[in-house]
Amino acid sequence: MRKLLAVIMLFAGLWVWAGAVPEKGRKDTKFRPIDVNMDSIRVNIQNPRSNYYYKRLWRKYQSNDTNMSLKEYRHLYLGYVFSEDYDPYRQSEFSKKIQPLYYKKHHTPAECDTIIKYAELSLADDPFDLKQMEYYIYVLKERQKYTRAAIMQSRLNNLIKAIMSTGTGTKEKPWVVISPVHEYVITNGLNFKAAEHLEYEGDIDYIKFENPKSGGPEGFWFDVSNILRVRQQKFGDE
Q1: Could you list the residue range(s) of the whole structural domain that residue 162 is in?
Q2: Which residue, 158, 126, 153, 160, is CA-closest to 137?
Q3: Which end of the chain, N or C, is surrounded by fewer C-beta atoms within 10 Å?
Q4: 50, exposed or middle or buried, with CB in 10 Å at 0-12, 13-18, 19+?
Q5: What are the pLDDT digits (tens) for 77-133?
Q6: Cβ 36 vs Cβ 166: under 8 Å
Q7: Exposed e or buried b per residue across 151-164, where buried means at least 16 C-beta atoms within 10 angstroms of its C-beta
Q8: Residue 175 in contact with residue 207, Cβ under 8 Å?
């Protein structure tokens, strides 16, 4: 598990993207997050004539189109909440089958192949399970399947960029996520350790750090309004 975590933490350098984590009191002029308009995204992804029509974006994503723009990835990620399959709290049954293997320090080739098999099934079932993507990349590299690992790494990188382009992780500009797990993926990926998870009015979550870095943020803020809205629509007060 230590080796796996070490590999995952190597992604942290990429995720400090375009100065998305500003120092206290410093105005960052290099990074300007967009204002997310979910109504506009919904209209775009449902319009067959739009460049952001969801079926078109999905085909490009599945074909590993390297020309997909950040805006396209943002529509792909955020637009998923309008899918019938979207359930922000569901864990794939395939993911559960291999979860015990993640806590082993070393993996045999056979175990890696098992993880690859079920990770692929899990991602087919839940395509934006970012944690599963991290594990999948790790075992692909272990089995020296570097081309496939690079493809998945590119997908993960662009999805992370899409999330981080929605804000700065501050109270004023929280990052918009479509899964509670993504809050921890971002926090851990940026080399912070979560100490406490708080929920605020206005559909905002706050991840407080265990040991904040001097001059840096004490935690990250996340907009979970889409998660809560869909949960209410599909499941009521369950």
Answers
A1: 2-235
A2: 153
A3: C
A4: middle
A5: 999 999 998 998 888 888 888 888 888 888 999 999 999 999 999 999 999 999 999
A6: yes
A7: ebbebbebbbbbbb
A8: no
Q: According to the model, what pLDDT value does residue 213 have?
A: 81
Residue 183 near residue 177, CB atoms below 8 Å: yes
Q: How far apart are CA 108 and CA 106, in angstroms?
A: 7
Tell me the HSE value of 216 on the side-chain side, using a 13 A CA sphere: 17
Q: What is the DSSP string of 59-121?
A: HHHHTT-TT--HHHHHHHHHHGGGSTT--TT---HHHHHHGGGGG-S---HHHHHHHHHHHHH
Residue written as token pair 């998870």: 197
pLDDT on residue 214: 81
Phi-psi group of 20: left, alpha or beta (phi > 0 → left; psi -120 to 50 → alpha; rest → beta): alpha
Q: What is the 3-state secondary structure (H, E, C) of 193-230?
A: CEEEEEEECCCEEEEEECCCCCCCCCEEEEECHHHHHH
* Number of residues that this document lists for the chain: 238
| Burial degree of 67 (CB within 10 A; 0-12, 13-18, 19+) | exposed
